[in-house]
Amino acid sequence: MAFTHMTTEGVVRQLIQILLLGLIGLGTTHCGSEKGAFFTLGRPLLLIAGQDTNHRGVSAYTLEGIPVGSIANFRVEASSPRGLAYFDDDTVLVAVDGSDGVSKLNLDGTKEIFHGSSNLNGNIYDMELGPDGYYYVIESNRIEVFNDLGERQASKLINTTTGSCTLSNPRSMTIDFNGYLVVTNQGGAGNILRYDISGDTATCVSSVAFGNSPYGVLAHSNGYLYITTQGDDTIYRADPDGSNAVEIWTVDLTILRDPTQILELPNGDLLVASSFTDTVERIQTDGTRVGSDPFIQDVYSLNVSDMIIIGVD
User: Fold this and answer.
1) Which domains does the chain have, with CATH numbers?
2) What pTM value is reported for the model?
Protein backbone atom coordinates (compact mmCIF):
# COMPACT_ATOMS: atom_id res chain seq x y z
CA MET A 1 0.00 0.00 0.00
CA ALA A 2 1.59 3.24 -1.12
CA PHE A 3 1.39 6.42 0.94
CA THR A 4 2.73 8.72 -1.80
CA HIS A 5 1.00 12.12 -1.97
CA MET A 6 -1.15 11.25 1.08
CA THR A 7 -1.60 13.68 3.95
CA THR A 8 -0.48 12.85 7.49
CA GLU A 9 -4.14 12.33 8.40
CA GLY A 10 -4.49 9.86 5.55
CA VAL A 11 -1.34 7.94 6.48
CA VAL A 12 -2.52 7.57 10.10
CA ARG A 13 -5.93 6.37 8.91
CA GLN A 14 -4.35 3.84 6.55
CA LEU A 15 -2.04 2.52 9.28
CA ILE A 16 -4.99 2.08 11.64
CA GLN A 17 -6.88 0.25 8.90
CA ILE A 18 -3.95 -2.10 8.26
CA LEU A 19 -3.67 -2.88 11.97
CA LEU A 20 -7.38 -3.52 12.39
CA LEU A 21 -7.65 -5.60 9.24
CA GLY A 22 -4.74 -7.69 10.49
CA LEU A 23 -6.47 -8.26 13.83
CA ILE A 24 -9.71 -9.04 12.02
CA GLY A 25 -7.91 -11.65 9.97
CA LEU A 26 -7.05 -13.51 13.18
CA GLY A 27 -10.74 -13.86 13.99
CA THR A 28 -12.00 -15.03 10.61
CA THR A 29 -12.25 -18.55 9.31
CA HIS A 30 -10.75 -19.98 6.13
CA CYS A 31 -12.23 -21.26 2.84
CA GLY A 32 -13.74 -17.88 1.96
CA SER A 33 -15.86 -17.57 5.10
CA GLU A 34 -15.84 -14.04 6.44
CA LYS A 35 -17.81 -14.35 9.65
CA GLY A 36 -16.23 -14.05 13.07
CA ALA A 37 -16.65 -13.12 16.72
CA PHE A 38 -15.19 -9.67 16.10
CA PHE A 39 -18.72 -8.46 15.44
CA THR A 40 -19.31 -8.54 19.17
CA LEU A 41 -17.73 -5.07 19.01
CA GLY A 42 -20.00 -2.22 20.00
CA ARG A 43 -22.63 -0.29 18.13
CA PRO A 44 -23.39 1.83 16.23
CA LEU A 45 -21.94 0.49 13.01
CA LEU A 46 -21.85 1.78 9.46
CA LEU A 47 -22.58 -0.98 6.96
CA ILE A 48 -21.78 -0.66 3.28
CA ALA A 49 -22.70 -2.93 0.38
CA GLY A 50 -20.22 -3.21 -2.49
CA GLN A 51 -21.35 -4.58 -5.85
CA ASP A 52 -17.94 -4.81 -7.53
CA THR A 53 -17.34 -8.36 -8.81
CA ASN A 54 -14.14 -8.57 -6.72
CA HIS A 55 -16.10 -8.08 -3.49
CA ARG A 56 -19.90 -8.39 -3.79
CA GLY A 57 -20.21 -8.14 -0.05
CA VAL A 58 -21.37 -6.25 3.02
CA SER A 59 -18.78 -4.75 5.38
CA ALA A 60 -18.81 -2.90 8.69
CA TYR A 61 -17.10 0.28 9.90
CA THR A 62 -17.16 2.50 12.93
CA LEU A 63 -18.82 5.87 12.46
CA GLU A 64 -15.30 7.30 12.24
CA GLY A 65 -14.72 5.28 9.07
CA ILE A 66 -12.42 2.70 10.66
CA PRO A 67 -13.01 -0.80 9.21
CA VAL A 68 -14.40 -3.52 11.45
CA GLY A 69 -14.36 -6.11 8.67
CA SER A 70 -16.28 -7.94 5.99
CA ILE A 71 -19.49 -9.57 7.22
CA ALA A 72 -20.33 -11.75 4.22
CA ASN A 73 -20.19 -11.81 0.45
CA PHE A 74 -22.44 -13.07 -2.32
CA ARG A 75 -19.74 -14.23 -4.74
CA VAL A 76 -20.80 -17.89 -4.56
CA GLU A 77 -24.27 -16.84 -5.71
CA ALA A 78 -22.68 -14.69 -8.47
CA SER A 79 -24.86 -11.90 -7.12
CA SER A 80 -24.47 -8.28 -6.08
CA PRO A 81 -25.90 -6.70 -2.91
CA ARG A 82 -27.65 -3.49 -3.93
CA GLY A 83 -29.94 -2.53 -1.06
CA LEU A 84 -29.72 -2.61 2.73
CA ALA A 85 -32.57 -2.24 5.22
CA TYR A 86 -32.71 -2.39 9.00
CA PHE A 87 -34.22 -5.53 10.56
CA ASP A 88 -32.80 -5.34 14.09
CA ASP A 89 -29.54 -4.28 15.73
CA ASP A 90 -27.91 -7.58 14.77
CA THR A 91 -29.55 -8.18 11.40
CA VAL A 92 -30.06 -6.40 8.09
CA LEU A 93 -31.97 -7.32 4.97
CA VAL A 94 -30.04 -7.30 1.70
CA ALA A 95 -31.67 -6.87 -1.70
CA VAL A 96 -29.57 -8.94 -4.10
CA ASP A 97 -29.33 -8.66 -7.89
CA GLY A 98 -28.31 -11.75 -9.84
CA SER A 99 -29.96 -14.43 -7.75
CA ASP A 100 -32.77 -11.84 -7.43
CA GLY A 101 -34.12 -11.95 -3.92
CA VAL A 102 -33.78 -10.63 -0.40
CA SER A 103 -31.44 -12.19 2.16
CA LYS A 104 -31.50 -11.85 5.92
CA LEU A 105 -27.92 -11.21 7.04
CA ASN A 106 -26.79 -11.48 10.66
CA LEU A 107 -23.69 -9.56 11.71
CA ASP A 108 -22.00 -12.87 12.56
CA GLY A 109 -21.98 -13.56 8.81
CA THR A 110 -24.79 -16.08 8.64
CA LYS A 111 -27.41 -15.45 5.98
CA GLU A 112 -30.69 -17.00 4.94
CA ILE A 113 -33.33 -16.39 2.30
CA PHE A 114 -35.89 -13.77 3.38
CA HIS A 115 -37.75 -13.77 0.06
CA GLY A 116 -37.13 -15.44 -3.27
CA SER A 117 -39.74 -15.88 -5.99
CA SER A 118 -40.48 -15.24 -9.64
CA ASN A 119 -42.09 -11.96 -8.58
CA LEU A 120 -38.65 -10.55 -7.82
CA ASN A 121 -36.67 -11.34 -10.95
CA GLY A 122 -35.87 -8.02 -12.61
CA ASN A 123 -33.12 -5.49 -11.97
CA ILE A 124 -32.88 -5.21 -8.19
CA TYR A 125 -31.71 -1.95 -6.63
CA ASP A 126 -32.42 -0.16 -3.37
CA MET A 127 -34.41 -1.38 -0.36
CA GLU A 128 -36.16 0.73 2.27
CA LEU A 129 -38.07 0.08 5.48
CA GLY A 130 -41.23 2.16 5.48
CA PRO A 131 -42.93 3.75 8.49
CA ASP A 132 -45.74 1.24 7.92
CA GLY A 133 -43.36 -1.61 8.82
CA TYR A 134 -43.21 -2.96 5.26
CA TYR A 135 -40.08 -3.37 3.15
CA TYR A 136 -39.92 -1.71 -0.28
CA VAL A 137 -37.59 -3.12 -2.96
CA ILE A 138 -36.87 -1.63 -6.39
CA GLU A 139 -37.35 -4.29 -9.06
CA SER A 140 -36.93 -2.91 -12.59
CA ASN A 141 -39.70 -0.32 -13.12
CA ARG A 142 -41.81 -1.22 -10.11
CA ILE A 143 -41.43 -1.47 -6.34
CA GLU A 144 -42.25 -4.74 -4.61
CA VAL A 145 -43.43 -4.77 -0.98
CA PHE A 146 -42.89 -7.39 1.75
CA ASN A 147 -43.86 -7.79 5.39
CA ASP A 148 -41.39 -8.68 8.13
CA LEU A 149 -41.91 -12.39 7.43
CA GLY A 150 -40.78 -11.99 3.82
CA GLU A 151 -44.28 -12.41 2.46
CA ARG A 152 -45.06 -10.45 -0.70
CA GLN A 153 -47.82 -7.86 -0.33
CA ALA A 154 -49.37 -7.92 -3.80
CA SER A 155 -51.95 -5.25 -2.98
CA LYS A 156 -49.23 -2.78 -1.95
CA LEU A 157 -47.12 -3.23 -5.13
CA ILE A 158 -46.14 0.13 -6.63
CA ASN A 159 -46.53 -0.43 -10.35
CA THR A 160 -44.76 1.42 -13.15
CA THR A 161 -47.44 4.10 -13.34
CA THR A 162 -49.33 5.33 -10.29
CA GLY A 163 -51.24 8.53 -10.94
CA SER A 164 -48.76 11.09 -12.28
CA CYS A 165 -45.75 9.12 -10.97
CA THR A 166 -43.99 6.89 -13.50
CA LEU A 167 -41.03 4.72 -12.52
CA SER A 168 -38.26 4.86 -15.12
CA ASN A 169 -35.03 3.10 -14.12
CA PRO A 170 -35.46 3.93 -10.42
CA ARG A 171 -32.30 3.68 -8.36
CA SER A 172 -32.71 4.87 -4.78
CA MET A 173 -35.33 5.54 -2.09
CA THR A 174 -35.68 7.38 1.20
CA ILE A 175 -38.48 8.13 3.67
CA ASP A 176 -39.11 11.84 4.26
CA PHE A 177 -40.49 13.62 7.34
CA ASN A 178 -44.06 13.17 6.05
CA GLY A 179 -43.56 9.41 5.85
CA TYR A 180 -43.61 9.63 2.04
CA LEU A 181 -41.49 7.23 -0.01
CA VAL A 182 -39.15 9.31 -2.20
CA VAL A 183 -37.69 7.66 -5.32
CA THR A 184 -35.08 8.76 -7.87
CA ASN A 185 -35.52 7.97 -11.56
CA GLN A 186 -32.46 7.73 -13.79
CA GLY A 187 -34.58 7.29 -16.88
CA GLY A 188 -36.73 9.82 -18.67
CA ALA A 189 -36.42 13.33 -17.27
CA GLY A 190 -34.77 12.05 -14.10
CA ASN A 191 -37.84 12.68 -11.97
CA ILE A 192 -38.00 12.73 -8.18
CA LEU A 193 -41.16 10.86 -7.21
CA ARG A 194 -43.03 10.89 -3.90
CA TYR A 195 -45.58 8.31 -2.82
CA ASP A 196 -47.97 8.29 0.11
CA ILE A 197 -47.66 4.73 1.44
CA SER A 198 -49.84 5.17 4.52
CA GLY A 199 -52.87 3.46 3.00
CA ASP A 200 -53.59 0.02 1.58
CA THR A 201 -52.21 1.12 -1.79
CA ALA A 202 -49.62 3.79 -2.64
CA THR A 203 -50.72 7.07 -4.20
CA CYS A 204 -48.62 9.59 -6.11
CA VAL A 205 -47.93 12.81 -4.20
CA SER A 206 -45.61 14.56 -6.68
CA SER A 207 -43.33 14.06 -9.65
CA VAL A 208 -40.64 16.68 -10.32
CA ALA A 209 -38.29 16.59 -13.32
CA PHE A 210 -34.77 16.84 -11.88
CA GLY A 211 -32.47 15.81 -14.74
CA ASN A 212 -28.78 14.88 -14.70
CA SER A 213 -29.44 11.18 -13.93
CA PRO A 214 -30.13 11.30 -10.17
CA TYR A 215 -29.09 8.26 -8.16
CA GLY A 216 -28.86 8.63 -4.38
CA VAL A 217 -31.44 10.49 -2.32
CA LEU A 218 -31.47 11.39 1.37
CA ALA A 219 -34.26 13.01 3.37
CA HIS A 220 -32.06 14.94 5.79
CA SER A 221 -33.09 15.82 9.34
CA ASN A 222 -32.89 19.51 8.32
CA GLY A 223 -35.92 19.01 6.06
CA TYR A 224 -34.13 19.12 2.69
CA LEU A 225 -33.48 16.39 0.17
CA TYR A 226 -29.87 15.75 -0.79
CA ILE A 227 -29.51 14.12 -4.20
CA THR A 228 -26.48 12.72 -6.02
CA THR A 229 -26.42 12.88 -9.82
CA GLN A 230 -24.31 10.81 -12.19
CA GLY A 231 -24.96 12.99 -15.23
CA ASP A 232 -22.86 15.84 -13.81
CA ASP A 233 -21.21 14.21 -10.74
CA THR A 234 -22.80 16.68 -8.36
CA ILE A 235 -24.56 16.78 -4.97
CA TYR A 236 -27.70 18.92 -4.78
CA ARG A 237 -29.86 20.21 -1.95
CA ALA A 238 -33.54 20.47 -2.86
CA ASP A 239 -36.95 21.10 -1.36
CA PRO A 240 -38.84 18.02 -0.10
CA ASP A 241 -40.44 17.41 -3.52
CA GLY A 242 -37.14 17.76 -5.40
CA SER A 243 -37.76 21.31 -6.64
CA ASN A 244 -35.52 24.38 -6.24
CA ALA A 245 -32.31 22.36 -6.42
CA VAL A 246 -29.06 24.05 -5.44
CA GLU A 247 -25.57 22.63 -6.03
CA ILE A 248 -23.61 22.08 -2.84
CA TRP A 249 -20.79 20.09 -4.42
CA THR A 250 -19.69 20.94 -7.93
CA VAL A 251 -17.63 18.85 -10.28
CA ASP A 252 -14.31 17.51 -8.97
CA LEU A 253 -13.83 14.17 -10.68
CA THR A 254 -10.70 13.38 -8.68
CA ILE A 255 -12.85 13.17 -5.54
CA LEU A 256 -16.42 12.39 -6.59
CA ARG A 257 -17.34 10.60 -9.82
CA ASP A 258 -20.44 8.55 -10.54
CA PRO A 259 -21.82 9.07 -7.02
CA THR A 260 -24.31 6.51 -5.79
CA GLN A 261 -25.77 6.41 -2.30
CA ILE A 262 -25.87 9.19 0.26
CA LEU A 263 -26.33 8.86 4.03
CA GLU A 264 -26.63 11.16 7.06
CA LEU A 265 -24.28 10.75 10.00
CA PRO A 266 -25.67 11.42 13.51
CA ASN A 267 -24.03 14.87 13.50
CA GLY A 268 -25.72 15.80 10.20
CA ASP A 269 -22.72 15.38 7.90
CA LEU A 270 -23.21 13.52 4.63
CA LEU A 271 -21.53 10.31 3.54
CA VAL A 272 -21.45 9.99 -0.25
CA ALA A 273 -20.28 6.92 -2.15
CA SER A 274 -18.19 7.54 -5.27
CA SER A 275 -18.43 4.41 -7.40
CA PHE A 276 -15.76 5.33 -9.95
CA THR A 277 -13.09 6.09 -7.34
CA ASP A 278 -14.26 3.29 -4.97
CA THR A 279 -14.41 5.68 -2.02
CA VAL A 280 -16.81 7.14 0.51
CA GLU A 281 -16.51 10.88 1.16
CA ARG A 282 -17.63 12.84 4.20
CA ILE A 283 -19.12 16.19 3.22
CA GLN A 284 -20.88 18.84 5.29
CA THR A 285 -24.32 20.04 4.21
CA ASP A 286 -22.81 23.26 2.85
CA GLY A 287 -20.59 21.22 0.51
CA THR A 288 -17.37 21.41 2.53
CA ARG A 289 -15.31 18.23 2.36
CA VAL A 290 -14.29 16.93 5.79
CA GLY A 291 -10.56 16.23 5.73
CA SER A 292 -8.37 15.97 2.68
CA ASP A 293 -8.53 12.21 2.16
CA PRO A 294 -11.45 9.86 1.53
CA PHE A 295 -13.48 8.92 4.60
CA ILE A 296 -13.28 5.29 3.47
CA GLN A 297 -11.01 3.80 0.83
CA ASP A 298 -10.13 0.12 1.10
CA VAL A 299 -10.73 -3.30 -0.47
CA TYR A 300 -14.33 -3.30 0.75
CA SER A 301 -15.39 0.09 -0.65
CA LEU A 302 -15.47 -1.10 -4.26
CA ASN A 303 -18.45 0.29 -6.18
CA VAL A 304 -20.59 0.96 -3.12
CA SER A 305 -24.28 0.37 -3.82
CA ASP A 306 -25.83 1.18 -0.43
CA MET A 307 -25.04 2.30 3.13
CA ILE A 308 -26.88 2.06 6.43
CA ILE A 309 -26.20 2.84 10.10
CA ILE A 310 -27.44 0.42 12.75
CA GLY A 311 -27.38 0.58 16.53
CA VAL A 312 -28.00 4.33 16.93
CA ASP A 313 -30.05 5.17 20.04
Assistant:
1) 8-310 (2.120.10.30)
2) 0.88
